[in-house]
């Protein structure tokens, strides 16, 4: 092929085009292979102030289509979905009026979940809030 006024063109033979087609097809299948709904069972540590306790079989659901994460009684919005991690944040007011803020990161490679929740009673300053945090290892639930 001849260059067009300062532009260069690339010429690929049939084998190169066939190879590129296979690569793009494989990449699209990998991207489509991940289900929209991911469910996990998590074990680890729950910390409230200086007190810690071991917790087991806490459910974690990540809905990639709706961009939400549910853990224990919390639901959060997925802020940032990356290849290796998912970051989330959420806030709500429970029935008694207490403000609940939750944020954290799920590591897609190791299965590690780090989550913090801040509870603030109605009509109080943030300094009167208390924090609960979870450090968990999550494994996919089998069907």
The largest sheet has its strands arranged as 1-2-3-4-5-6-7-8
Count up the domains: 1
> What structural class is derived from the secondary structure elements?
mainly beta
Number of strands: 8
Radius of gyration: 23 Å
**Helix tally?**
1
CATH topology: Porin
> What proportion of the residues form beta strands (DSSP E)?
over 45%
The portion of residues assigned to helices is 10-25%
The first-to-last residue Cα distance is: 55 Å
Chain-averaged pLDDT: 83
Q: Identify the CATH architecture.
A: Beta Barrel
Q: Which secondary structure elements does this structure contain, and how are they paired or packed?
A:
Elements: H1 14-33, E1 37-48, E2 51-63, E3 68-71, E4 74-81, E5 85-93, E6 99-107, E7 112-120, E8 130-140
Antiparallel strand pairs: 1-2, 1-8, 2-3, 3-4, 4-5, 5-6, 6-7, 7-8
What can you see in these coordinates?
- With 143 residues, the protein is mainly β.
- The protein has a single domain, classed as Porin.
- Helices cover 14% and strands 52% of the residues.
- It contains one helix and eight strands.
- It has one helix at residues 14-33; strands at residues 37-48, 51-63, 68-71, 74-81, 85-93, 99-107, 112-120, 130-140.
- The chain has an eight-stranded antiparallel barrel with strand order 1-2-3-4-5-6-7-8.
- Strand 2 and strand 3 form a beta hairpin.
- The longest helix is centred in the first third of the chain and has 20 residues, at 14-33.
- It is globular, with a radius of gyration of 23 Å.
């Amino acid at each position: 092929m001849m260059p067009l006024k300062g532009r260069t063109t690339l010429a690929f033979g049939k084998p190169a085009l066939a190879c590129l087609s296979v690569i793009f097809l494989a990449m699209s299948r990998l991207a489509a292979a991940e289900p929209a709904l991911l469910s996990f069972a998590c074990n680890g540590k729950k910390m409230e102030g200086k007190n810690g306790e071991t917790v087991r079989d806490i459910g974690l659901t990540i809905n990639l289509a709706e961009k939400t994460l549910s853990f224990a009684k919390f639901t959060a919005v997925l802020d940032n979905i990356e290849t290796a991690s998912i970051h989330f944040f959420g806030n709500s007011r429970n029935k008694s009026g207490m403000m609940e803020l939750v944020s954290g990161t799920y590591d897609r490679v190791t299965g590690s979940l780090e989550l913090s929740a801040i509870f603030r009673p109605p009509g109080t300053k943030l300094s009167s809030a208390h924090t609960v945090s979870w450090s968990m290892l999550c494994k996919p639930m089998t069907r």
